[in-house]
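[step 3/7] inverse_fold.run input=structure_tokens len=294
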């Protein structure tokens, strides 16, 4: 379908303006083409590119290459590393692909996505290598990640949310949970004091203490199963080489894939990610990211 740059541009135009051109500044609907990718609005005379204001804004990569990278990422069930894609596409360095993948991971968080609902299990996990650290919930050089999982009973997992938190204090946990879970939902946690004010925030908070279960039974089993899957994915697909500064982007990708794990069509996942890429803000690469790609 996308064997040429022209085919990619035409698909992007149809996807961005399915009912015809709409100016992002004045919302005018009349325009004339200046080139294959550039339109001039008849109302405000502004030149609008099909990629302006999107993930592909001012990118030095061709759309055909973007489409190829996106397909290589979404066509594989467990994803692909920058090194693997660069080898497949014949790049001598994986830096360009690494930067493109960082941008695509931003598109894996849909603007205005719905929060989790129903019965939700919450706990923190520590992501990092085998390094000496402080005991308990102190993370030292590792990264503390808050995990929320919808409990569907016999059906198993629902949707998930993953977010890096600075510490396990009540303030950090409450701030993260507000963006993850809808109010008035039933939230199950362990007995950590950082969760004790959730009831006052409008959640139906239930504390699962170890003494309420049989000895050795996990109090938050769904969270720890997600933790195992996440760490296995980081080790297998990305060889465990994810740096803390980039970890949230990888958490976004894992969440995107897990929440769409029952999708039967890889083409549909490709289309969904491409659609989100057209509605999110441009993601310029920071100089620090350029110097140290994941």
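[step 3/7] decode complete -> sequence:
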């Amino acid at each position: 379908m996308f064997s040429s740059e022209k085919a990619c541009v035409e698909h992007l135009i149809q996807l961005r303006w399915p009912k015809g051109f709409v100016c992002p500044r004045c919302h005018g609907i009349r325009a004339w083409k200046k080139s294959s990718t550039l339109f001039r609005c008849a109302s405000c005379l502004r030149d609008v590119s099909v990629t302006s204001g999107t993930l592909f804004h001012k990118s030095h990569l061709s759309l055909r290459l973007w489409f190829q990278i996106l397909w290589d990422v979404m066509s594989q069930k467990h994803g692909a590393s920058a090194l693997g894609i660069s080898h497949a596409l014949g790049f001598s360095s994986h830096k360009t692909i690494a930067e493109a993948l960082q941008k695509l991971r931003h598109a894996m968080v849909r603007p205005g996505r719905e929060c989790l609902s129903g019965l939700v299990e919450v706990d923190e996990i520590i992501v990092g290598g085998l390094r000496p650290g402080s005991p308990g919930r102190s993370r030292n050089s590792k990264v503390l990640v808050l995990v929320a999982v919808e409990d569907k009973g016999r059906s198993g997992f629902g949707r998930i949310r993953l977010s890096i938190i600075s510490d396990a204090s009540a303030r950090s946990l409450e701030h993260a949970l507000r963006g993850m879970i809808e109010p008035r939902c039933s939230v199950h946690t362990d007995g950590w004091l950082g969760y004790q004010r959730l009831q006052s925030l409008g959640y139906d908070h239930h504390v699962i203490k170890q003494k309420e279960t049989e000895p050795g039974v996990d109090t938050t089993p769904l969270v720890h199963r997600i933790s195992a899957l996440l760490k296995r994915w980081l080790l297998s697909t990305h060889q465990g080489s994810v740096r803390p500064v980039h970890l949230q982007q990888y958490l976004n990708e894992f969440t995107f894939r897990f929440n769409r794990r029952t999708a039967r069509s890889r083409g549909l996942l490709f289309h969904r990610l491409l659609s989100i890429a057209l509605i999110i803000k441009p993601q310029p690469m920071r100089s620090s990211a350029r110097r140290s790609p994941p």
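[step 4/7] annotate
The chain is about 35% helix and 15% strand.
Confidence is low (pLDDT under 50) at residues 287-294.
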